[in-house]
Structure formats: structure tokens, C-alpha cells
Write a structure and sequence with these properties.
Elements: H1 5-24, E1 42-46, E2 50-54, E3 63-69, E4 78-82, E5 86-90, E6 97-105, E7 119-122, E8 138-143, E9 146-150, E10 158-164, E11 173-178, E12 181-184, E13 192-199, E14 215-218
Antiparallel strand pairs: 1-2, 2-5, 3-4, 3-6, 6-7, 8-9, 9-12, 10-11, 10-13, 13-14
Amino acid sequence: MIVSARSRRLALALVAVLAWLSLDVPAAAAATYPFEPPAPPAATEVAGTGVALAWDAVEGAPGYRVRYSSRSSMAKSRYLRTTSPTAVVTGLARGTTYYVTVRVIDTDGTSLSAYSERYSVRTRTKLSYKYLVPGGLAATSPNWDRLAVSWDRSGPGTYRVRWADNKEMDGASTKKVRGTGYTITGLDAATTYYLQVKVVTRTAGATRSPYSEAVETTTADPDPATIRVGSYNV
């Protein structure tokens, strides 16, 4: 193919313009965001295979993306999303240093800030608890003699629930449970109870996390409409 001298001159001029533009535009201008990066996250709890994280909320942020890796270069990173300035990272290796960073995103996952500075945390060894304390422990009283208890998943899915009518948990009752909920029955009406939950092994029930902080709740009052009085002729 024969290229004319005019075509060659135009091509060289175009290359020169593109080169000038690439030098003239600052690199930072290639990615501008409406939010500043969040402050680096920090661990609030560390176990053998999981880490609970928290960071300062960014005002107006719709959500966050957490990025973590066992490599300081952040190669082979894994990600999770959250709408609050907290996250629980699970499935980690024991005794391993992880690097974590966080950025602001919108509800579609579009980045709204650069990533924060990295934070490093090392998971526990075999001598410590394997799993994080189950979070989100809550209870309702669907009837006066029972409490419906629920919590967030942690570990493989077996737990021990503990309850008592005193803060010291003296004389507490316990139940090993599969899943993240259990209904306690046979309770006294209008009575305050204290509840805790921890991760255990499925077969032996061996402890795999500390107990959660106790949650205080009260059973319902008996419904007067359910009380029936018999009448007898003496």
C-alpha cells in the first residue's frame, strides 16, 4: 500500500498532539470522586478465621466496599459491600496477616471515593477462639411463657444459647442449636431474662467462640382474655 506524503504528515501531527495531551493532563485528574476516602478501618474483634472491622462514617455515603488480601500488594483481593461503617470478614486463615482498605460506593457498586489507606491485622493462632462472637442477638416474646431468639451467623452454624433471670447467669439454662434462631419455652410471665449465644462444634458442643454480651428482655404479660374462672355449685 502506498501512503502519500500528506497522509504521513497528518499521522505524525496526530501522534504529536496525542503525546502533548498525555503530558499536559495531570494523572490525578483521570479519577476524581465526590467523596474523600474514608479513614483506615480498624479491628474491633479478631478470631482465628474472622475479623470484625469498623471505621469512621463518611457523611452522606450510600455504602462502602471493603477490600482485603493476604498480600501487601493487594493481589488476589476479595471484596464485600456494606451500608454501615462496619464489616465482618470471615473465611480467613489462622495466624495470617491481612491487609484491608475501604472506599465509598453507591447502591449500584460504583466507586464514589478512592480507597482508604491500608490497615493490617493478623488473625489468631490455634490457641485462641476460631470464630467471632455471633452478633445481632435479639429476642421477642410471642407469648407470655416463651422468647423467640435470633442472631447473626458466625462459623459453621451450631450454637449454644444460654439464658437466666439474673445478670450473673447463675443457674442458667442452655441449649445447643442448629441455625440462627431458637424459641425458649416454659418461662415465667412478665419476667426479665438475660440471653447469650456462642459458637460450638456440632457433635461435641466444644466452644469455638466467646459468649456474646448478654441481652436483656422481658416476657409478655398474660392476656386476661385467656384466663378462665370456673363456677361451681357447692
